[in-house]
Amino acid sequence: MRLLTSIVTPEIAEDCKLFRKNHEEYAEACGYRYSCNNQLVWDKLPASFSKIGLILRALEAGCDPILFVDADIAFMDYTFDLADLLINDYWLAGYRQRNCLCWPYLCGGLLV
């Protein structure tokens, strides 16, 4: 099963309504099931840690590919499937941050 998943906890739910609609529309356009979680996997840790737990659960459920998107990600092109970035030996794709000149790093807010 193709899965697009995110976390929108109650305290940010109102601010994320348009983002959730955007996620749902992208998921439908590209053939993903959309799952928006309103609870953290580990409630004593920041929400960013829960994305790993959600990805692990999706892998255990047999989902492939999995798109994890932060609650404030907006898709602009509904015709490009981000899973197409996974070719040959590439099993992970993400956005390389360029706003820190000291060292390059992968933004965990959009993972494929």
Envelope shape: globular
Report the portion of residues in β strands.
15-25%
Q: What's the gyration radius in Å? A: 14 Å
**Unreliable stretches:** none
Strand arrangement across the biggest beta sheet: 2-1-3-5-4
Number of strands: 5
Mean pLDDT: 87
- Helical content (DSSP H or I, runs of 4+): 25-40%
- SS content category: alpha/beta
What's the helix-strand series?
EHEHEEE
Characterize the biggest β-sheet: 5 strands, mixed
N-to-C span: 14 Å
- Counted by DSSP, the helix tally is 2
Structure overview:
The protein is an alpha/beta fold and 112 residues long. It has 2 helices and 5 strands; from the N terminus they run βαβαβββ. Helices cover 25% and strands 22% of the residues. It has a 5-stranded mixed sheet with strand order 2-1-3-5-4, sandwiched between helices. Strand 4 and strand 5 form a beta hairpin.
Tell me briefly what this model is:
The chain is an alpha/beta fold.
List keywords for this structure.
about 110 residues; five-stranded mixed sheet; 5 strands; about 20% strand
Task: Show the helix and strand layout.
Blueprint lengths: L2 E5 L9 H14 L2 E5 L9 H14 L5 E4 L24 E4 L7 E7 L1
Parallel strand pairs: 1-2, 1-3
Antiparallel strand pairs: 3-5, 4-5
